[in-house]
Design brief:
Elements lengths: L1 H14 L4 H15 L4 H36 L2 H13 L4 H14 L4 H19 L6 H10 L1 H5 L6 H10 L7 H28 L23 H16 L5 H15 L7 H31 L2 H10 L5 H16 L2 H22 L4 H13 L7 H10 L3 H28 L4
Helix pairs in contact: 1-2, 2-3, 2-13, 3-6, 3-12, 3-13, 4-6, 4-11, 5-6, 5-7, 6-7, 6-18, 7-10, 7-18, 7-19, 9-16, 9-17, 10-17, 10-19, 11-12, 13-18, 15-16, 15-17, 16-17, 17-19
């Protein structure tokens, strides 16, 4: 009960706009105290351990990703890409343009956090041109980067699709039919919802609003510079990461350097842009690390084992048990990969053995676990907090649409995937 209480408190305060930076440790301390844990060691070792481990692993990505995105914006490269995408999809289809751009980058292997930083300036330019409310921006990016290309589409190199390969002895293409069908449900259903919301907001005269006064100066500017040169830094990151198999840090660093070289005539603006990008990365990584720290405390609570056992034994059908377990644990921990990891560590071997002795396919179990992990974005989710920090928006302004496209519709896709797997369609 204390886990649920703590989770509800964290979501409630996050939704009200209270900073996760101080709310997460306060609520984690509350959970630790009423769970019988030593409060101070829980904070210093467990909470801060999770916080620091995440920051140590991901801060270079956050830093370089933020600098990359800021340089793309300030050099005009993002605006050039935005205008070209607007021409392809039409000025009235900004949401579709951003969605496709996010999907391409995510499926290309670019880290979700990097996609957020890289796409934001492009998305702002597209939404401005189409007069789409900025409140729909987080949901659009979340749909394109945090759902179908992260978990469902076969072959995606995102970690949520790679973790199950070790447990089920599968590969990234596992459960292709389930993945394609569930991916289409997420993509099409999410886009239709956002298109409906755009029309609804415009009927109320709620169009695009500038994120700050400086951005107003960019309004109405036309495409400037070469489309190829504007696209090149993105291609450099994607190709070095996926074709040359470079480390993400190296790929991003080369991406940043390529922007500087291509736009060398604008060298006077480089230092201010890099400084602003670096500042933005700090807030984003701290927000996400705070949520991860809270998840670490939750997993340390004795009651957490009871919750895990209950979920894992909720159904005799391993497809249902696995799907529900991964989804709920990802919700509790605020991490798709974290929740999946806990579930597979606890019963992954059991599920795999069942796939060898029954008609339940290991490929189906792989895909269901992956899809379930992404159907989990609650207000304290780490990726969502990063997205809100980058876009400068609050839960009150955006979470309704994020809830629909990144939780409700993916859950429907999960149910359909389980049904297909139960019928032997994989």
């Amino acid at each position: 009960m204390i886990i649920i209480t703590g989770l509800l408190l964290l979501m409630f305060f996050a939704y009200l706009g209270w900073s996760i930076i101080w709310i997460a440790p306060v609520v984690a301390t509350f959970v630790a105290y009423f769970s019988g844990l030593d409060v101070l060691p829980t904070y210093t070792d467990v909470y801060m351990g999770g916080f620091v481990d995440f920051a140590a692993k991901w801060f270079p990505i956050f830093l370089l990703g933020a600098i990359f995105g800021k340089l793309m914006e300030d050099t005009g490269a993002a605006r050039t890409l935005a205008h070209r995408i607007a021409k392809v999809f039409g000025s009235k289809r900004a949401i579709l343009g951003v969605l496709v751009a996010c999907a391409i980058l995510t499926y290309g292997g670019v880290s979700l956090f990097v996609v957020v930083f890289a796409i934001y300036p492009l998305a702002i330019a597209l939404f401005r041109e189409a007069d789409v409310s900025r409140n729909l921006l987080p949901a659009t990016i979340a749909l394109g980067a945090f759902t179908f290309t992260m978990t469902a589409i076969p072959g995606t190199p995102q970690i949520q699709n790679l973790i199950p390969t070790d447990t089920f002895k599968t590969n990234a293409m596992a459960g292709s039919i389930i993945g394609i069908v569930s991916g289409l449900i997420m993509a099409v259903g999410g886009y239709l919802w956002l298109a409906y919301r755009d029309k609804q907001l415009k009927a109320k005269n709620q169009g695009f609003t500038e994120p700050d006064e400086k951005a107003v100066a960019d309004e109405g500017q036309s495409e400037s510079g070469s489309f190829i040169f504007a696209l090149l830094p993105l291609l450099v990151v994607v190709l070095t990461l996926n074709v040359l198999k470079w480390a993400p840090i190296a790929s991003l660093l080369v991406g940043v350097l390529s922007i500087l070289i291509i736009n060398i005539k604008q060298y006077k603006s480089f230092i201010p842009s890099v400084n602003e990008g670096a500042k933005g990365s700090v807030m984003a990584v701290i927000n996400t690390s705070a949520a991860v720290g809270f998840g670490s405390v939750i997993t340390a609570v004795p009651e957490f084992k009871d919750v895990t056992n209950m979920l894992l034994n909720v159904s005799s059908n391993p497809l249902v048990s696995e799907g529900l377990s991964v989804q709920v644990l990802a919700m509790i921990t605020g991490s798709a990969s974290g929740g999946m990891g806990i579930a597979l560590q606890a019963l992954g071997d059991t599920w795999y053995q069942l796939s060898q002795t029954t008609d339940v396919s290991a490929e189906a179990l792989h895909r269901i676990a992956s899809v379930a992990s992404g159907a989990s974005i609650l207000p304290h989710n780490g990726a969502l907090l990063t997205l809100l920090a980058v876009t400068g928006l609050r839960h009150k302004e955006t979470y309704k649409d994020v809830f629909v496209v990144a939780l409700v519709i993916p859950t429907i896709a999960l149910f359909v995937g389980i049904a297909l797997a139960a019928m032997g369609i994989i």
